[in-house]
Structures are given as structure tokens and as C-alpha cells.
Amino acid sequence: xxxxxxxxxxxxxxxxxxxxxxxxxxxxxxxxxxxxxxxxxxxxxxxxxxxxxxxxxxxxxxxxxxxxxxxxxxxxxxxxxxxxxxxxxxxxxxxxxxxxxxxxxxxxxxxxxxxxxxxxxxxxxxxxxxxxxxxxxxxxxxxxxxxxxxxxxxxxxxxxxxxxxxxxxxxxxxxxxxxxxxxxxxxxxxxxxxxxxxxxxxxxxxxxxxxxxxxxxxxxxxxxxxxxxxxxxxxxxxxxxxxxxxxxxxxxxxxxxxxxxxxxxxxxxxxxxxxxxxxxxxxxxxxxx
Length: 289
What we know:
Its main location: membrane. Residues 82-275 form the ABC transmembrane type-1 domain. By secondary structure, this protein is an all-alpha fold. The protein has 14 helices and no strands. It has 2 domains: 13-63, no CATH class; 68-286, MetI-like (MetI-like fold, Orthogonal Bundle), CATH 1.10.3720.
């Protein structure tokens, strides 16, 4: 409120009304975005009977952890599926960053025959719906005996992420002045040293953006995990949510479903809150040169 009052005080009278309307509109949109999250968390702490009787109600007089306890009996248990999701997301983030950073640096700061064509081909793969290539990907994993494997699923997710990640990193490195690289070369620094000690710290917002997108996409992805994994002990959280929502005899367990959604959302919310500053800077990296 102090910041709002300060902004209103320093602006001319003609701009105050527009600024106030902008703030009010932003608050309304924020409420619309936040309310589903609040509703899911509130319903996850309802007793089972209250959640089944009125799933749309926001709050209940009673508070219970029963829904979270029931998740332990869904298949192998929610903690097993959460562990699988963590391993897959972490592997996807690490491999995506390790590949996209040097690739983006190469496309940004080096010139070689066929560079533009190769970059266009990489970007063109973003236009291919991944659902249309699931069958050939499954056959490839089968040849390498990686079907029903968490590592095989990580490789699939990295494949999906690389075009966007290479594009983001190239833009991030384009924003770094060439004078820094030339000065480092005069001092005798190698290309690896320049990338590690000069370019990476400056392009860190871009790296954070790539890592966040890789995490969110691999954490929430459902279709590929459903197709490539057949062992129940290797399922991920999105597949667990489908099992919970199907219920027994087709009856949806609303309380357990909201508890599962809450468990799935918490890492995404925390990661975004921790990296939001880098995320915004990373999205605009290279936009203005």
C-alpha cells in the first residue's frame, strides 16, 4: 500500500486514474488465478465425507489429513510416484541445461557452414506435435532396451525440450557484448573458460528460464509417461492423479484427488517463487540489443 500511495503521489493527476485502474485490474486477474490454487488446498484438508458431499465448497469446519493418508494406499504410494517425478524432472533439467548451453553459445558466438540451416531445422522440430512421433520414439527406446525406464523417459523429455532451450540460450548469449569475449581471449582464456566464468554468470537468467521450463514440462507431462512406462512402481504423479480420479466403481474420491493435486503443485509453486526474478529476465534476454 505504501508503494501504491507513493506511485500515485508522484504521478500527474491525469495518469493517476489510469494507473489505479491498471492496479485494480491486475488484482482481479490475480484473484482469478489464485482462487483455484486456494480451493484445491482447502479441499485437500476436508474430511472425506465433506469432500464427497460438497466438492465445490471452499472451506469446511473440520480439518483432516485423511486425504493425504489415503494417497499412501494409491498404487505403490504417492511418495514412490513423487520420487519418480523428482528423478525424471531433475534428470531432464540437468541434461537439457548441459546440452542447450553450449549449443546456444555455439549458435550465438561462432560462425560455421550451414549454421543458419541447422538452426532452422532445430526450430522446425518445435512445429511437430510430439504425439505424432510417440510410436517411432517407442521403437527407438525398444531397440536400446530403454522402454519402461525412467532414464529412457528422461531422454524423451530432453528431446522435446531442446529446440526451445537452444533458442532461449542463443538469445541470452546474443545479449552479451562481444567485447567481453575479445578481452578474455587477449588475456589467454580458452573457450571453455570464457563460457564457464564469463558467459554463464551473465546469461544465468536464461539458464534459469530453461531449467524452469524443463522442470515444469517434465513434472506435469502425462501422455509420454503413460505410454512409455508399464511398471506401476515407475509411474509419475500425473498418472497417479488419473488413478485417483477414476476411483472405485467410477466414483471420484474428491478429497484424495485434491490432496494429490496439492502435492503436485507445491514443487512448481516453490520453484517459481524462488526463480521468478531470473525467469522474467530470462524471457526478455536478447529481446533488445
